[in-house]
Amino acid sequence: MATLEDVRRLALALPETSEGERWGKISWSVGKNAFVWERPLTKADLKRLGDEPPPEGPLVAVSVADLDTKDFLVTEEPDVFFTIAHFNGFAAVLVRLDRIGEDRLEEAVTDGWLARAPKRVAADFLAERSADPPAGDPPLT
Questions:
Q1: Residue span of the structural domain in which 30 resides
Q2: What is the 3-state secondary structure (H, E, C) of the chain?
Q3: pLDDT class of 124 with cuts at 50, 70, 90
Q4: What is the pTM of this model?
Q5: CATH of the domain at 18
């Protein structure tokens, strides 16, 4: 089970990320672009869900690369990723923190960052990341 503190730690570990507030909730941005933010369901969201039971536990929204990626996530991992009417046409998913493991959360946060980071910053990050040997492997000499 992940927490908002896990989201904070993972987001702030990414280059040029800052923490701030959007609509009174914590958000993390790269440059001026938010890529992950706290997103509890509103009364309007709950009303639109109708008879469908609302998800329990803390939620964050995470940017995704595009609507196809969004559709894939909510179809393949509906216990973790979902969407609501408010997000129709918007490249982001909601994440149930109480149902996501830390590795998967790190992947989602990083992918969200890559989707919103300036191209140069993202390219530098990916180049540096591919240059680093995987953890546990000895360095090449």
A1: 4-40+55-122
A2: CCCHHHHHHHHHCCCCEEEEEECCEEEEEECCEEEEEECCCCHHHHHHHCCCCCCCCCEEEEECCCHHHHHHHHHHCCCCEECCHHHCCCCEEEEEHHHCCHHHHHHHHHHHHHHHCCHHHHHHHHHHHHHCCCCCCCCCC
A3: very high
A4: 0.87
A5: 3.90.1150.30
